Backbone:
């Protein structure tokens, strides 16, 4: 009697417990699903916002390179060239497209269809082939960012009019019917530096800045990190000093990155008078920041070389330095390189410390050396994300896509390197 | 000569000494009957010479690079004609800047006061003197190093141990960079903070309830007296971090448990790296996502159910930060859960417990210290996280515990106070360093404590 009662009790509790078990499993699945959805959502959001920026709106105009209109008479006189009214070229050509537009205000609105850098593009074109002077050719001219935003959204079916007037929208409609306005590959995005005008802004300067800063970081942090790792793994005596170094490295790995910015500002800029905003100081700060990562991964790589190799080398009469340099180091190198790439990926994505050391400046020129003022890709993203123009949202997302593809490439290389070169003992 | 040219010269000299000394050692060895009569391999003699030739000179070059400009500036300013002598610090820097701009040809020489022109000429001539003297000094030093090494070069000279001693010291110096970095951080935040606490009492800073760092530029300006009470910032930081942990801990922990205990190897190989993608995304991307996608979405969502959610709410910033921290917690938890010995699981399962009961009553309690350590590391990351809050949280310091409102954090204030050009003597910029000191201290304590727990835990099962 009592036996069957217990059995029933157990049976009941068993169903309850099994249900709890199933529930618990589902919590786990849901947690992973949320994580994966966050990844997917992030990428979809960025791509859907940014894919448009790879194409820009251009307007077809019949440009007549009229020297009088520009106000020059000699193409080799640089002073004249820089004083010339280049914007008059596309303006007059546009007025010829719409001859019935009159009145000051309407003319100004018509001119607003064009990017205010359009004239300088034509200048470059003319200087590249001076025989064009006095002739007429049909050119695709860059449109203003408001027009660009409107035209893209209008093509997608939900027009975003914003600051455009009905008249301007009508002009765009007319141009579209005649096939004189078109989306073309946005080469400006990859060839230009920063600009206040979204349609003329590009990431070339930021990419170059990132590249220079990373080269500086790699040149400093890889040798120092590898040397430190060799010392700690192979030569350091077990004493308090060594322990202190290890504690320091572990803690530095967890110090907020912005603190390194404060360090850079107070020590490098204020004390050593390194100039602001240059890749040198950015590289120094990022070196200190990535050093713990590189030391820790290099140590793991050295540790994974089996002791038998060391013993064999020592047995053959090598000194400890010869053992390390000729045998341990070559075997540990793939692991160290993986660590270096991961550290560089970390440095490439870092923003906060660079804000402190002046790499947020608005810099139009593309940096060519380690001491040219520069900004880096993540900081450029931050600056553009802060800009009020709607067209910059698209640009920001595009810059993020470029940054992410660099990071993905670096991390894939690191994984590939690890699989390909690392030996299992 | 420029520093880069000098460095290049040193490299060339180093290579030269290497080959010369190696050749000389070979020449010494030949009449004796081969290199086996030398104490060390010939390349060590070469290395010895190269090190002696380049190292002292490089050291000198480094010192010169640091002090050259400082010394020259001081000399120029002491020789300044009396009517231009600056009255205060700001003026000093202004005049110095003018002088160096004239000297470098950035400012045109016309229409400048004669005193400044003299100073600029003085600066130029001092520069020339300094560059020539450093060039001469370095060449002399390099050559005497080479001479010293050649003087010691004999068949029984123990070159290898000598070279290895130098290398050992170089390696040690590299390892000590970590210590110097920590020292640099401590000194840079501490000194500026002490200066700050001279003008603002430390008690007012740590316990003050109002934060408005705008100091008056003119004496009679209204409403910008500047108050530096950091409590609203601390509360804001804690609020954002709490929201982040509220999202990251359950999701991170549950996914770690599922991946470690339930998932088959196929799910593990794909899901784990996919989750870790979240850790590799730069924070500025999260910031953009939070500010332009999540925050407007939450605001509209709130509006549709009648809640006013600020467009810079702590919820948006904290939520996105939580997503960022998920992989951090899950990988740390994964490590400690897999470190729990299988025998403990087997014992529990053998007693008839279901798998989830085993996990909840045996595995998690056993792994708890490690998990707590991981969570503490995650909190320290959340507190120190900058870009997400800079882009998605507010600027105004509000003392509130409502995650739907806009708050500001310690890191946001550090960035806003220090971005752009700043002078170093106003309490406004110094306040950023005081905040940095707080941030560094808190994260350091959290890290040390967490690392200690994790280490203790690891020892327990190893």
Residues:
């Amino acid at each position: 009697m009592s036996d069957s009662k217990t059995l029933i009790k157990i049976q009941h509790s068993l169903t309850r417990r099994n249900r709890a078990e199933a529930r618990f499993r589902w919590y786990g699945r849901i947690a992973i699903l949320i994580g994966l959805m966050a990844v997917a959502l992030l990428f979809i959001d960025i791509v859907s916002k940014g894919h448009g920026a790879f194409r820009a709106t251009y307007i077809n105009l019949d440009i007549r390179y009229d020297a009088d209109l520009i106000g020059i008479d000699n193409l080799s006189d640089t002073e004249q060239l820089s004083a010339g009214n280049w914007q008059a070229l596309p303006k007059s050509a546009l007025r010829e497209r719409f001859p019935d537009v009159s009145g000051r205000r309407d003319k100004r609105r018509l001119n607003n269809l064009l990017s205010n850098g359009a004239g300088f593009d034509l200048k470059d074109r003319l200087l590249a082939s001076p025989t064009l002077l006095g002739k007429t050719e049909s050119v695709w001219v860059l449109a203003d960012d408001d027009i660009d935003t409107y035209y893209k959204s209008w093509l997608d079916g939900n027009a975003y009019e914003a600051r455009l007037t009905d008249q301007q929208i009508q002009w765009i409609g007319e141009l579209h019917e005649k096939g004189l306005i078109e989306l073309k590959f946005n080469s400006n995005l990859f060839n230009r530096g920063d600009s206040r005008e979204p349609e003329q802004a590009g990431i070339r300067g930021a990419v170059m800045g990132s590249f220079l800063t990373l080269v500086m970081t790699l040149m400093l942090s890889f040798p120092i990190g590898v040397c430190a790792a060799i010392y700690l793994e192979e030569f350091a005596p077990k004493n308090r000093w060594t322990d202190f170094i290890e504690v320091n490295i572990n803690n530095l790995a967890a110090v907020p990155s912005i603190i390194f910015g404060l360090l850079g500002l107070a020590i490098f800029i204020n004390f050593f008078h390194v100039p602001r905003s240059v890749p040198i100081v950015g590289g120094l700060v990022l070196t200190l920041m990535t050093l713990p990562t590189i030391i820790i991964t290099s140590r793991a790589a050295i540790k994974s070389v089996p002791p038998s190799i060391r013993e064999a080398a020592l047995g053959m009469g090598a000194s400890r330095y010869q053992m390390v340099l000729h045998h341990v180091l070559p075997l540990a190198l793939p692991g160290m390189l993986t660590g270096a790439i991961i550290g560089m990926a970390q440095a490439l994505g870092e923003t906060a410390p660079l804000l402190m050391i002046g790499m947020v400046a608005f810099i139009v020129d593309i940096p060519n050396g380690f001491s040219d003022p520069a900004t880096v890709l993540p900081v450029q993203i931050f600056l553009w994300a802060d800009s009020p123009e709607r067209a910059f949202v698209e640009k920001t997302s595009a810059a993020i896509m470029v940054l992410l593809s660099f990071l993905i490439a670096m991390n894939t290389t690191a994984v590939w390197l690890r699989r390909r070169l690392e030996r299992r003992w | 000569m420029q520093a880069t040219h000098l460095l290049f010269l040193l490299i060339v000299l180093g290579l030269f000494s290497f080959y010369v000394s190696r050749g000389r050692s070979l020449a010494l060895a030949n009449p004796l009957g081969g290199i086996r009569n030398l104490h060390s391999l010939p390349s060590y003699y070469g290395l010895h010479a190269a090190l002696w030739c380049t190292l002292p000179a490089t050291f000198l070059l480094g010192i010169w690079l640091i002090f050259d400009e400082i010394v020259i500036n001081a000399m120029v300013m002491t020789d300044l004609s009396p009517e231009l002598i600056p009255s205060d610090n700001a003026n000093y820097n202004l005049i110095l800047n003018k002088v160096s701009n004239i000297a470098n040809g950035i400012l045109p020489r016309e229409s400048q006061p004669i005193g400044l022109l003299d100073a600029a000429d003085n600066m130029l001539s001092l520069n020339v003197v300094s560059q020539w003297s450093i060039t001469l000094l370095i060449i002399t030093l390099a050559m005497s190093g080479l001479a010293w090494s050649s003087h010691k070069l004999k068949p029984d000279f123990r070159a290898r141990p000598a070279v290895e001693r130098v290398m050992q010291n170089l390696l040690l110096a590299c390892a000590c960079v970590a210590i110097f970095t920590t020292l640099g951080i401590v000194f840079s935040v501490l000194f500026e903070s002490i200066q700050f606490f001279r003008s603002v009492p430390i008690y007012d800073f740590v316990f003050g309830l109002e934060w408005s760092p705008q100091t008056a530029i003119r004496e009679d300006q209204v409403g910008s007296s500047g108050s530096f009470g950091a409590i609203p910032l601390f509360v804001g930081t804690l609020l954002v971090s709490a929201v982040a942990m509220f999202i990251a801990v359950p999701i991170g922990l549950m996914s770690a448990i599922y991946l470690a205990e339930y998932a088959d190897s196929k799910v593990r190989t794909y899901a784990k790296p996919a989750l870790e993608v979240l850790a590799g995304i730069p924070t500025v991307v999260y910031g953009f996502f939070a500010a332009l996608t999540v925050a407007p979405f939450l605001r509209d969502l709130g509006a549709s159910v009648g809640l006013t959610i600020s467009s810079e709410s702590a919820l948006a910033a904290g939520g996105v930060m939580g997503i960022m921290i998920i992989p951090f917690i899950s990988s740390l938890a994964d490590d400690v859960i897999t470190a729990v010995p299988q025998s403990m699981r087997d014992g529990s399962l053998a007693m008839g417990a279901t798998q989830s009961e085993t996990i909840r009553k045996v595995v998690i309690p056993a792994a708890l210290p490690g998990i707590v350590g991981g969570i503490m590391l995650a909190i320290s990351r959340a507190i120190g996280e900058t870009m997400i809050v800079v882009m998605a949280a507010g600027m105004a310091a509000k003392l509130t515990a409502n995650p739907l409102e806009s708050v500001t954090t310690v890191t946001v204030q550090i960035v806003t106070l220090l971005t752009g050009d700043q002078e170093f003597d106003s309490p406004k910029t110094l306040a950023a360093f005081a905040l940095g000191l707080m941030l560094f201290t808190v994260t350091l304590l959290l890290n040390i404590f967490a690392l200690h727990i994790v280490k203790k835990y690891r020892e327990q099962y190893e």
Observations:
- Chain A has three domains: 2-51, 55-191, 204-421.
- Residues 55-191 of chain A form one domain.
